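User: Batch of two.

Assistant: Item 1 of 2:
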Amino acid sequence: MISSAAQRYALIAQLAYDYNATFGRPAGKKALQKLFYILQRRLVAAKHYSFSFYNYGVYSHDLARDISEAERYDFLHVDYDDVNNAYSIRPSSNFQENKRFVPAFYPSADLKDVLDRSAKDLELITTIMFVCDEEKISDRNEIVGRVLELKPKFKEAEVWKNLIPEFCGCA
């Protein structure tokens, strides 16, 4: 269970670190939102944020606030690239010291199948999860149809490829 702000901020920094190390480039705000949704779905102890569905998929206002606060309290370093309209999020220079606050329940191995995915891939995966979990759709064809309705930028073949047990219990 997450019991303090320091634990939340340290977990955000740890997740950014794990994503950056695996994916090979800094996480953005969109990727962190999706990774937290997946983490909370897989680990009950990680549940802290409420998510809703927005333009880029699942989104938590509270997590967005905590990302800003984690930067303010020197757990994260956030850069904005106005040319590419993108954020780069890295653990701060105090990362090693702040790691002591990472909750003991967090095993990065639980996310190894998604840490190497792009933000766009994570958007699709979490949309599938949202449709299965929040909208309670279990028929595979209906899931694909609903995901395409919510996210028409994805191709049907992409949705089918990601409709697997790790992302949707119906598969």
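Item 2 of 2:
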Amino acid sequence: MTPLPSGRAELQAALAGHPVFARADRARLAGLEAQFEERRLAAGALVFRKGDPGDGLYLVASGGVSILHDAVGEPIERVRDLGAGDLFGEMELLEGARRLFSARTWLPTTLWHVAAGPILEFLAANPPVEMALRALTIERRTSRLRAVLAPATRREPRIRVDLTVWLALPGELSHRACLEDLSASGACLSGVPAGWTEGAEIAFTLGIDRRPDLLPIVATIQWRRADAVGLAFRDPDRRRVERALAELLQAPR
């Protein structure tokens, strides 16, 4: 018998050893394995966005994925972090719904993905697996409900913005970037200049087409992943940030 490529062998072992598939028919499970496709993503990559059509089930082979509630104009909620061996996307798969949350990698990540058609056909032929997958959904919903009802621990909620903005840099041409989120104490931007490195102090004015001077910012770069950075503001003006946020959320997209 020809040995499986290493990635396929790891997938086979992951599915065979996963509690959800513990009572699966082995022959049918082998057929399902052949339907999985491997995806390799950089840290900070979007897997899917809230509101996207449900496109099947995912299994984390390596790395890490964060499930996020990140609707524009609302506080960002980190629903859960997932690592190797974790499944996700099961809620929308079982309900035939659009994505309830966004999913984004926080490490270089390898995923296995199977489209909705093959996995739904497999579940129809393997009721114990469908029951186990539904039990996982119930467990996760219960866990999130407990988290939502628990006292808040973050003082400054980050508000999802997801808007293209201008960065006016001293002595340089303005730079186009995406403002991912904003709070009174910091921001996350993607598409930033290559020279922005972790630990550096930067000064710029954040603007939009109708308000190029919307928000002057002096900040320290707390982290950088690919072309995205997290900023901690120095001596932030809370009221000015709040006014800027209101205008950003009303800007055309």
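The chain has two domains: 6-149, 159-250.
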